[in-house]
Write a structure and sequence with these properties.
Layout (H helix, E strand, L loop, with lengths): L2 E2 L8 E11 L5 E11 L8 E4 L8 E4 L2 E2 L4 E3 L2 E5 L4 E10 L9 E5 L2 E5 L19 E10 L5 E4 L2 E7 L4 E12 L6 E4 L2 E8 L5 E8 L8 H18 L7 E7 L6 E2 L4 E5 L12 H16 L8 E2 L5 H19 L2 H20 L11 E2 L8 H18 L1 H15 L3 E2 L1 H12 L8 H4 L5 E9 L2 E9 L14 E8 L10 E5 L3 E7 L6 E4 L8 E4 L3 H10 L3 H21 L12 H13 L5 H8 L4 H6 L6 H18 L1 H12 L7 H20 L1 H15 L6 H12 L4 H14 L3 H12 L6 H8 L10 H13 L1 H4 L5 H13 L4 H5 L3 H4 L6 H15 L6 H11 L1
Parallel strand pairs: 2-12, 18-19, 19-21, 22-24, 25-31
Antiparallel strand pairs: 1-23, 2-3, 3-9, 4-8, 5-6, 5-9, 7-8, 10-11, 11-16, 12-15, 13-16, 14-15, 17-18, 20-21, 25-26, 26-29, 27-28, 27-30
Helix pairs in contact: 1-2, 2-3, 3-4, 3-5, 4-5, 5-6, 6-7, 9-10, 9-11, 10-11, 10-14, 12-16, 14-16, 15-16, 16-17, 16-18, 17-18, 18-20, 19-20, 20-22, 24-27, 27-28
The structure holds arginine and zinc ion (ZN).
Length: 863
Amino acid sequence: PMILREDYRPFGWLVPNVRLDFTLGLAETTVRADLQVARNPAADSTPVLRLNGDGLNPLEVLVDGAVMNSWVMEGPDLLVTLPDDAHTVTITTRIDPAANSQLMGLYASGGMLCTQCEAEGFRRITFFPDRPDVLSTYRVRMTGPRADFPVLLSNGDLVGSGDGADGTHWAEWHDPWPKPSYLFALVAGDLMVQRDSFTTMNGREVDLGIYVRAEDEGRTDHAMQSLKRSMKWDEEVFGREYDLGIFNIVAVSDFNMGAMENKGLNVFNTKYVLADPDTATDGDYDAVEGVIAHEYFHNWSGNRITCRDWFQLSLKEGFTVLRDQLFSQDMGSAPVKRIEDVRVLRSVQFPEDSGPLSHPIRPDSFREISNFYTATVYNKGAEVIRMMRTMAGPERFRAGCDLYFQRHDGEAATCEDFVRAMEDGAGLDLRQFRRWYSQAGTPQVRVAVASVEGGVELTLSQTTPATPGQEGKQAVPIPLKLALHDRATGTLGEETLLMLTGAEQRVTLPHDGDAPVLSVNRGFSAPVVIRRDLAPDDLVFLAARDDDPFARYEAMQDLVVGHLLSAVRGEAPEKWGAEGGRAAIRDVLATVLADDGIDDLMRGELLILPGETYLAEQLPVADPGRIHTAREALKGWLGQALEGEFLALHHRASRVGNGFDAEAKGARKVKTQALVFLAAGNPGLAAELATAQYDASCEPGGTMTDRQGGLLVLAGLDSPARTARLLDFYNRHQDNPLVIDKWFSLQAQSLHRNALAHVQALAQHPDFTLRNPNRARSLFMAFVGNANAFHAPGGEGYRMIADTVLALDPLNPQTAARFVPPLGRWRRIEPGRAALMREQLERIAAAPRLSRDTFEQVSRSLG
Ligand code: ARG
Ligand code: ZN
């Protein structure tokens, strides 16, 4: 059944207090739940209390302590009819955590027990109104064998613990903050803890703990430092203080997503907690910091103020992503972080928005909410709030946030509530801006510049392409930061903010001198596609000279995209100048390589060529094979044309130490990028350098960043060193699952012509399993990202992904459904491959007993 946003009704009953009593066992856990319920005066009155369940049977139901037998099941739900306005309903259920392969609800992972309840996992533990607008305080008692579960954790404060009979012990936790069921958490296991503490701005002491398995002890330092920095930053930048005496984090290896913001007890995928220089890359360090911050920030944007219903998911996720992005900007290089975030938006969210799964950041309908934890809800949601910040300026934005937190503290709110707080607190008029919440699709903005008397006239227009279920689109307000630069004199213009609100708009801007070069959507001030007809010389100028780092990156991308698209289309290259623009690209790259004005982290961004998915996205219908060939050809040509420069860069960067400062991180970034170009231009030389880089990284103090980078390049080449180093890497790290994930990934991502066959073989490797989501993704998501291999002309890649979906769906539907969208891109791929992609979607659709998750994604993809 389809669930509609407009069907929202408040729940008929309030559940102010919940007591849970767990008798824990890996294969059998008994749950006794006491729900204190009362009629909700704000809802339609009903004597029927509908409690959601998923795969549960009630062993016993009591009302006010007396057995009641008149309950009925309606599908998975339990219906209890209550005579009066207030009661205590007690329900006993029994579950088998070890058999829970979906990893939703209470499940076993490596001998420990843990929970994941967002969005609808709590109903797999006990019967409950499992919806985010029912807020309760929880008191949780758990008992279990001390030997198996020495650590017993839940939300809030520990209020008691002790020993029981037969080697059991117990603990009781109380969370004073009312919360929805999706924020409940319980962890029981044999875990080590790193402890620390944080003093809040009002002088309250908070005990911090990061719990991991014994073998991961010593890898939690970075997470702990990141947590303390997040707590401080949220006080300083958003005025948000932590509100309990304890904040715990637990790392779990079997986890569907990144992490979960359960009140006072965040549960994390190990991938976003554990880090040390020998096993984590610089990218992993940044991801740990970002996700720790994200989950911590949810304490206010998500927990203190939660969502009324799941259509409002972006209320907490979009806002929290923006908050973690701003945090990471402040912790490291702001321009580099901005470019990274835009790259993710364009390579993941833009394709989503232009395909069959396109939806507004606040969707209108869904079958399975797990399918809506998307780049649109998260990343475009963050961009929409970032635009409000750009329009208001940081101070007024902060005032809007303050008002939001103050007005809605303790409530289950809506996106509309947030927008209204921004209007009232930040003084913005957001009447038209609300369309960003309701309209799907990426706006396309055309910008033309013409010289007029005393200045220039800009003609701006916008259209948003139709998306499934939304034919006619309206204009949205688009904040565009822009500047006019003088190419002849090299004078850079002042930045101004221009609001494009209509379908078409003309603006005259003062400017002296020759026709200026337009630098537009600086800092990526709006999540739109800009169509600007800039001459290659102007792009060269911007790429080499613009004072906005993002605009420089953008010009570089546009220059390369322009060249590659003409190559793909087989167009005459004159427009792009000598050698179809290759010479211009070479010259800008040479400038970038020599530019002392930027650091290596930024230089690294300017060296990244647009990805194959992003290139495909620029064409109505793409031929992935031609795109790959054209991109590799350019890379190879540049690798040869700038061989000396790349060699020098690799040499210089190799002499920087193994530290974790910006200089060392930047050096590592450009070092591997130099290898990437050299591998395309001079494979023999690159193999030698990559091998040397790998070997040096195995010396004491060497880093995983260098080791993985060297091996990734080597894995794409035919070199005797290839097999030896792959084997060495495996042997070196076979006891560390997160590093073995990298080993699978880098082979699946490699440019080796046999990558597809390698992936087929790796799927049979004894260490491979679909039961662990990280491992499944390490092989098959990495493979999907390897456009050339995934789009093998015979369709073997598509078949392999469909096989994966079919094998995974019965075990873990949520993770299985995530492999469907890549096949859903078929309409945008050339007809031969499109037919093969469709064929695989149809094969999935025809399978018996498909989960709701996969069914929804496949049927939307087939259209
Ligand atoms: N709220 C979590 C986060 O973004 C994500 C949880 C998603 N879980 C799920 N089963 N879909 O931090
Ligand atoms: Zn989140």
